[in-house]
Write a structure and sequence with these properties.
The complex is a heterotrimer.
Chain A (H helix, E strand, L loop, with lengths): L1 H16 L2 H22 L5 H15 L6 H9 L1 H7 L4 H28 L6 H28 L6 H9 L4 H15 L5 H28 L3
Helix pairs in contact in A: 1-6, 2-3, 2-6, 3-6, 3-9, 6-7, 6-10, 7-8, 7-9, 7-10, 9-10
Chain B lengths: L13 H32 L14 H28 L2 H33 L7 H22 L4 H28 L19 H43 L1
Chain C lengths: L7 H43 L1
The chains are: A mainly alpha, B mainly alpha, C mainly alpha.
Chain lengths: 220, 246, 51
Amino acid sequence: MKLSFHLLKYELLFALANKGILLSTSFFIILILIVGIGFGQIGESSEKTLLAIIWIAISLSSLLSIKTMFQEDFDDGTLDLYILSNTSIETIIFIKSIVHWITTNLPIITLIPLISFPLGITIYHSILICFVMLLSTPALSFISTIGAALTLGEKGGNLLISIFILPTFLPIIIFGMKISLLITNSTYDIMAHLILFALSLICIAITPFITSLIIKIHYT
Amino acid sequence: MIKFRKNIWEFANPNNFLSIANKIIPFFLILTIITLSLGLVWGLFFTPEDYRQGSSVKIIFIHVPTAFLAINIYFMMLLASIIWLIRRHHVSLIAAKSAALIGLIMTLSAVLTGAIWGKPIWGTYWAWDPRLTSFAILLMFYLGYLSIWQTMKFSDKIGDLSSWLCIVGSIFALLSRYAVFFWDQGLHQGPSLSLDKEENIDNVFYFPLIICIIGFVLLFLTLLLIRIKTEIQKRKINILLNARDG
Amino acid sequence: MLDFGKYTFEILISYVGTFSLVAIVIVSTYLDAKKVKRDLKNLNIDNLNDK
């Protein structure tokens, strides 16, 4: 337990030192602006398109720094030590995914009210959407670790990760978009919320085990 | 003459598999040609027009078999991948690898014929209807599985990785399918074939359709056997080359 | 002979489309099998020559 806290602290400090937060938020803002300007040229700038852009941007930016998650440890041999040591590798994957979520998705989610308010979604609705995202985006970080494990040691794995992992975001994206749309229409569907959070929790519970199984393939 | 074997896993020996495959491929080829041409000719020329859809109903004789195969080939790949992970039989892994391309083509043709059929009946080639969306999802997972084999060389490690990709992919494909169906049931009619006799389509279309499905399944099996055989021989060549050069 | 009333074009295009897609797999399978067969034959002859 103590080791886990040390690892969490170390990973967080490492991510902060690498300016990961700055990069992911800049990527998010640029993506939103580019797509917004593009849609503005053809006069299609409704709140529906904005919601779609936000969900797509958040799923793309959670794939941003995923390649380096295990690759650095794999290259310099830290991962070998983790596997040889007593700590379960599932714990390490769990901590790494949490840190990935804190450094890429959390800053973006706090930005959403600021971005969506001027573009036509009321502040109350955008805060509600933020809460939905807070509870559902951890699943995105956890699922993308599977892609990082699959392409471990592969050159140019970034494109492969997107091909493998983006389709697996679909259940979360479908439910997330539909719920956000319902929120902007001021209607609520409690069943849909519950299913979305259940999906998120299932992903958090299962993916560390799958990822650890895949990582161990590289060491047999 | 094929000897009776006590254990089904004896087929997993590549040499046994090859000797049996060599014997049955010609039979399968002839059977495929007979059933497929019988079913398609019956369907095209000897079925009446539907009272609502007119003659466009004849598209069913390729739309339903290809859609049926597209889904079931993915299940077959999943099963083969699990067998590879548990029992480490190379033939199983090669079967999963060889089936993927056929599955992709079947998905594409199901989508294509569906779009052509949808235009006169629904007035649109493509709608984000749950059934159509689940085929789009299936297409994405086939592409993901094929791309892992395209980019990396054949080895046991890549076999493990691709099998895990297949398992993870099928979990999420199922979840996405139910996520799509959670919101609405869509334009598409219900399944054309089910065990419940009441819901089935009329007998006039039912028998040629069954023959067509059998024909397409036989076509898939023939192609799969030939592809597995080729893949095993490729690996043999690699081994021989390595032995000669190194 | 190939006249199915109102939807002739749709029916024909879907049959032709499907079978050209299937033909891609058939041709690629056939060419692959032929190439491997030739390689195997060449290799066996090479091995015999070595001996």
